[in-house]
Amino acid sequence: MEPAPIQFEPIAEDALLLRFGERIDVTLNERVRAAVITLQRQLPQLEYVPAYASVLVRFDPLAWHNANVSPHQALERQVRIALGHDEAPVHASREQEIPVCYGGVHGPDLAGVAQHLHLPIDDVIARHADADYHVAMLGFAPGFPYLLGLDPTLAMPRRDDPRQRVPAGSVGIGGLQTGIYPDPLPGGWQLIGRTPLRLFDVNATPPSLLATGDRVRFRAIDDDEFRHLEAEQHR
Amino acid sequence: MSVSVLKPGLLSTVQDGGRPGHAAIGVGRAGAMDIPAWRLANALVGNRGGEAALECTLLGPTLRFEQAAWIALTGAPIQAHIRSFDVPPWTACHVAAGSVLQLGGMAVGCRSYLTVRGGFDVTPVLGSRSSDLHARLGHHAGRALQAGDVLRIGPASDLHEEDAADTIQALPWRLDPQPWFDFASSPITLCHGSHWSQLDKASQERLYGSRFSIGKDSNRTASRLDGQTLQLRAPLELISEAALPGTVQLPPSGQPIVLMAEAPVTGGYPRIGQVAAVDLPRLAQRRPGDAVCFRHGTLEHAIARLTEREQALDALLAQVARRLQREGSTRA
């Protein structure tokens, strides 16, 4: 089946949205990733913001001014040309393993999640840790990954009373999504565990541990290993 | 070369032009809420243009200058004095070493900018000195000033001997704050957003025909609009997409939210409008309780007005630089 055509929507003076679809779907997200790689190569002076099924292009409308067409039309033409003649091969994704200590103080909502889903706690942990995830986008806060691939039997509504401060490294479930809070942040997702890894550090290169397109696996660890790894991170 | 914070004010943050280029890892731009005011304040002290300033919110800080400096104030009109000397805004002022600058309240508006020749030299993070309170980036991991903070001042070339003089003195001329500060609270231009057509008819009329007021829990991330509730024809299930400053989102509560300088890079609420970039600094100057009315504009018209504004601002910045050079006042 032919992929659906890209919709172009000017959304601000300096922003053009490229929409590939309206669903959360791995295939659409792969197209987003391929498009960003191609555009970064062909039109490197612009900024790209990938999301689940769309890419936002930020540009300087004054620099794209032209007597005959609007800056958005001029940019759309260049984007179409760039995407038309070079369907970039997507580089093999990086594999990232994230150690997670499930439950207890690190995952205060795990017992409630298990109860809500009518599953034993160990099953919730096994189903969460056994899946293959894919970083669909980073957003909400620096380095916060939105992961695709959650076992649909683990889908959980968000908390009625969002927390004012979720500890850094907390792993949560919100609807069909799962993610990791890189910093202490307010949050409404159900917290099932915590990783000792630092997901975002402005002094690291690159600052974000994860990037769009990365494959992610969780590995269940116990409290001792959590403390050991946490100490290593701060060394 | 430093400035000590004696009292922090209500919410005083270090801001420059922002942190572009990192949205793909979830880092927004932040930066000054009123960019033209920030640029003009830099020009007045003879800075090159990208230097960080203090953005003061509603009530300014009290600062001690540990050495002589050239300063300027722009944005919302703010009470400012050094002992009995009233520090005039929209001009450059020379302050002596040891001067205590007391910034007070703002008669109107919400944000004032204080620049110093050389700029506030906090350590840049990802290419910018802006504090992002939401993302916790910048000065002291993105927090507002606190009493006891010491801010370094960057190097300024050509400081002449008389600049170190023990005098407090303003230039004999100042800029007209208009059109850079909107005293008239005129309507804000709003372009249709992706989901504007999904609003019910009455809500479409209310958005452009009614008065909103700025909600009390507004901040650098978003201005909340109170006074009217808007509704969609039917609930929309959306997936997260990129978000921008100026985007008007409609959460399920029906109270619209305008994203501001510290907007997160993605969002999942319906986008019912986009504030014209040229009017965003004017919206940033509305304080909680202030009225806001919208008038419709096309994106094409918004780009034309932005182009005009940028040309006028560039011309004024060049004029200020020439005048300072001619008069040798701040050794630009």
Major sheet description of chain A: 7 strands, mixed, barrel
Distance between the termini of chain A: 52 Å
Oligomer: heterodimer
Strand content of chain A: 25-35%
CATH class of the largest domain in chain A: Mainly Beta
- Radius of gyration of chain A from CA coordinates: 20 Å
CATH architecture term of the largest domain in chain A: Beta Barrel
Question: Biggest sheet of chain B, in brief?
Answer: 8 strands, mixed
The end-to-end span of chain B amounts to: 18 Å
Give me the number of helical elements of chain B.
5
Helix content of chain B: 10-25%
Give me some keywords for this one:
heterodimer; A: 235 residues; alpha+beta; Gyrase A, domain 2; Cyclophilin; 2 domains; 4-stranded antiparallel beta sheet; 5 helices; 28% strand; B: 332 residues; 8-stranded mixed beta sheet; 6-stranded antiparallel beta sheet; globular
Describe what you observe in this structure.
The complex is a heterodimer of chains A (235) and B (332). Chain A is α+β, with helices and mostly antiparallel strands and 235 residues long. Chain A has two domains: 7-85, Gyrase A, domain 2, CATH 3.30.1360.40; 95-233, Cyclophilin. Chain A is built from five helices and 13 strands. Chain A has helices spanning 26-42, 71-85, 110-117, 121-130, 223-233, and strands spanning 7-12, 15-19, 47-50, 54-58, 95-102, 133-138, 145-148, 163-166, 170-174, 177-180, 185-187, 190-194, 215-220. In chain A, the strands form three sheets. Chain A has a seven-stranded mixed beta barrel with strand order 5-12-9-10-7-6-13, surrounded by four helices. A four-stranded antiparallel β-sheet of chain A has the order 1-2-4-3, with helices on one face. Chain A starts with 6 loop residues before the first strand and ends with a helix. The mean pLDDT of chain A is 92. With 332 residues, chain B is an alpha+beta fold. Chain B has two domains: 2-181 and 320-327, no CATH class; 188-297, Cyclophilin, CATH 2.40.100.10. Chain B contains five helices and 22 strands. In chain B, α1 packs parallel to α5. The model of chain B has no long low-confidence stretch (mean pLDDT 94).
